[in-house]
Specification:
Shape: globular
Distance between the termini: 33 Å
Structural class: alpha+beta
Order of helices and strands: HHHHEEHHEHHEEHEEHEHEEEHHHHH
Largest sheet: 4 strands, mixed
Strand order of the largest sheet: 2-1-4-5
Number of strands: 11
Number of helices: 16
């Protein structure tokens, strides 16, 4: 199986316009077994209520039955179970929870299709791809702004991208590389499987469910053609100055040397997206002067300080090194910071009667997760600010666990000496990441 997948990768590399027509045969018992072993054991079950642990009791028999149904055309995906999770701004994001069997098949499909599309995807794309991360996207953007001719930033947002992917256009785009009718039919079944909301099944005529194993790859394929490929092949050659794109899933930033080029993109981008049933969120779209010479240019024109923009949970702003040279700096975005504190406050409230040792262990795990993501260059003060706010919340939470006030601050500090809250240890050096990957910047 590994050899067959390697041959697909080699074929995709040597024949960029090759259309693959025999992919469904790769859905073998061996591949499904690998997909099953990659499943996480602690995830919620889908509409059938079957967990991975339940499936494990007779997993070989289940997989034998699954592969038989797949190849005789009897397999039908079940609807995903819809759950709304908070986004932190008072809104919610729909999350689709697939059944165990559907996760296995989706994972197997992703394993096959990645062999083709990881060759095709541009280096500007970072979201949900093997070996790539949010920090890598931030690092690439930082290197572009700091070392290239960048004076303008176009910050745009696609409104409800995952909910408005056009199924028909997606299949058309897939056909540029996939001609296997069985594989395309299987993907379409997943797209049309529907969702279960409060016990009622609803059809899905558009969109890809967030939370599914297959959705990130399909979303990347869609935006590869809609945005990345179009920007590289059609937009950049028509511009007068340098231009760059960095995208993580449906979040993207465009950087320009010339204001005229940036404004041209903002004029044509809504039309481009509309061709694929997408639209920009006008209230979240802006064009701002930004970069090494932004402060000087703003002062000359009496525009005040350069603007700021948000990307991947960080506010980016023009700063200076000790030598007074330009430095792109980042801090935790205020909305993300407030949302994290609200989530922490709610979680503490839900565990008023949980044993203290269990709460403390999970609390420190949450803090370490926050530090791990937001612990980047120049953001140390906001990490400590978050830890201080968390400490305040924990103090009030401890005193609400009984009717009488149980601890004053001196007693609480003494308790903290024995059972400390997790503290940030080190920062991720995005500048060093940029230097390490500097040789690939030309691809951007």
């Amino acid at each position: 199986m590994h050899d067959r997948l390697e041959r697909i990768t080699q074929r995709a590399e040597t024949h960029p316009k090759e259309v693959f027509n025999n992919l469904f045969s790769l859905l073998t018992l061996e591949l499904l077994g690998d997909a099953y072993r990659k499943l996480k054991r602690d995830k919620a079950p889908g509409v059938d209520g079957v967990t991975v642990n339940h499936y494990e009791a007779n997993w070989q028999g289940h997989l034998q039955d699954l592969i038989a149904r797949l190849h005789r055309g009897a397999y039908r995906p079940q609807p995903s179970l819809r759950r709304d999770i908070p986004k932190g701004n008072g809104k919610t994001r729909p999350l689709g929870i697939a059944c165990v069997e559907d996760k296995i098949v989706q994972r197997a499909i992703v394993t096959i299709l990645e062999r083709i599309y990881e060759v095709d995807f541009h280096d500007t794309s970072y979201g949900f791809r093997p070996g790539r991360s949010c920090h890598a996207a931030l690092s690439a953007l930082g290197q572009i702004v700091a070392t290239r001719k960048v004076s303008w930033i176009s910050d745009a947002d696609i409104r409800g991208f995952f909910d408005h992917v056009c199924h028909e256009r997606l299949v058309e785009l897939l056909r540029q590389r996939i001609a296997d009718p069985k594989m395309l039919a299987l993907i379409q079944r997943f797209l049309k499987a529907g969702v279960m909301i409060e016990g009622q099944r609803r059809t899905t005529d558009e969109g890809v469910p967030q939370g599914s194993v297959l959705s990130p790859l399909l979303a990347n394929v869609y935006l590869h053609y809609v945005l990345d490929h179009w920007f590289q092949r059609e937009v950049k050659p028509r511009l007068q100055g340098e231009a760059y794109l960095v995208r993580y899933a449906d979040d993207f930033i465009c950087a320009f040397e010339r204001e005229s080029d940036a404004r041209r993109l903002q004029e044509v981008l809504p039309k481009r997206l509309a061709k694929f049933s997408l639209e920009l969120a006008a209230e979240k779209t802006q064009l701002l002067r930004f970069g090494r010479f932004a402060r000087r240019d703003c002062q000359r024109r009496g525009e005040g300080a350069p603007g700021t923009f948000a990307f991947l949970g960080f506010t980016h702003f023009c700063g200076q090194r000790r030598t007074h040279r330009f430095k792109l700096k980042r801090r935790t975005a205020k909305k993300k910071y407030q949302a994290k504190l609200r989530d922490l406050k709610l979680w503490l409230h839900q565990h008023l009667t949980t044993p203290l040792s269990e709460v403390w262990e999970t609390l420190n795990a949450k803090l370490r997760g926050h530090y791990q993501y937001y612990g980047v260059n120049d953001n140390w003060p906001w990490l400590m600010k978050f830890r201080g706010a968390a400490k305040q919340l924990v103090y009030r939470w401890l005193n609400r666990r009984s009717q009488s006030k149980s601890k004053n601050w001196s007693q609480f500090d003494a308790y903290m000496d024995r059972f400390p809250l997790a503290s940030p240890k080190k920062l991720v050096d995005l500048i060093a990441m940029s230097r390490a990957r500097g040789s690939t910047l030309g691809d951007l």
